[in-house]
Write a structure and sequence with these properties.
mainly alpha; de novo design (two linked rop proteins); 7 helices
């Protein structure tokens, strides 16, 4: 993002982005939760998103990784994304949350994005199949995390030292944060393409 973007424009862009991707993640979570119920009733069910040997929701959904805490992982999305959407709408309306609240939200979503990429790793290298809706959650979670972190760096909500905050803010305002996000997602896509190749089709 350009260095001369005004705080209002930055807020509008970042929280609109956050709202959009939180909605996508919520939709995907609803589908995954429904599919989990279907698979619980019939583990041999063929799901609409079971497209081929690589893109196979049913194969992923019947593993222990899909129910790490004893219930479908999608339930976290059903709980967490409405909170994110509420924060985004409130910020777009000009609401100012306490610093500690935004810091806590960032910590919580950091754990969420780490969990999402752990699941992606498990799908890619352990389970041997990908779930399209899970992929949507992973990428949507990445953008929500990036938007929230971007804003919290700008607003100094992360309790960084003065020097660290100045460097982090310059990193964000000079566009390096956005380039890092693009680079990360590009790397993830390249890894998946190398791993699966033509079997995607």
């Amino acid at each position: 993002m350009e260095q001369n973007v005004t705080p209002k424009r930055a807020r509008t862009f970042l929280f609109s982005e956050m709202l959009f991707f939180a909605i996508l993640s919520l939709i995907a979570s609803w589908v995954l939760a429904y599919d989990a119920i279907v698979l619980a009733a019939n583990p041999d069910a063929i799901l609409a998103c079971s497209i081929n040997e690589v893109l196979d929701c049913a194969k992923v959904g019947t593993t222990w990784q899909a129910n790490v805490w004893g219930f479908p992982n999608a339930f976290f999305g059903l709980i967490g994304e409405p909170v994110v959407m509420t924060i985004a709408v409130a910020k777009l309306s000009g609401v100012r949350f306490p610093r500690w609240f935004m810091f806590a939200a960032n910590i919580g979503y950091t754990l969420g994005v780490i969990f999402a990429y752990w699941l992606l790793y498990q799908s890619t290298f352990v389970i041997g199949a990908l779930c399209p809706w899970c992929l949507l959650v992973t990428f949507a979670t990445t953008f929500v995390f990036a938007s929230m972190t971007n804003w919290n760096i700008r607003e100094n909500n992360l309790y960084l030292s003065e020097g660290a905050h100045a460097k982090a803010k310059a990193f964000v305002e000079n566009g390096w944060f956005t380039l890092s996000l693009i680079g990360w997602l590009t790397l993830v896509i390249i890894i998946e393409i190398i791993k699966w190749g033509p079997r995607f089709l």
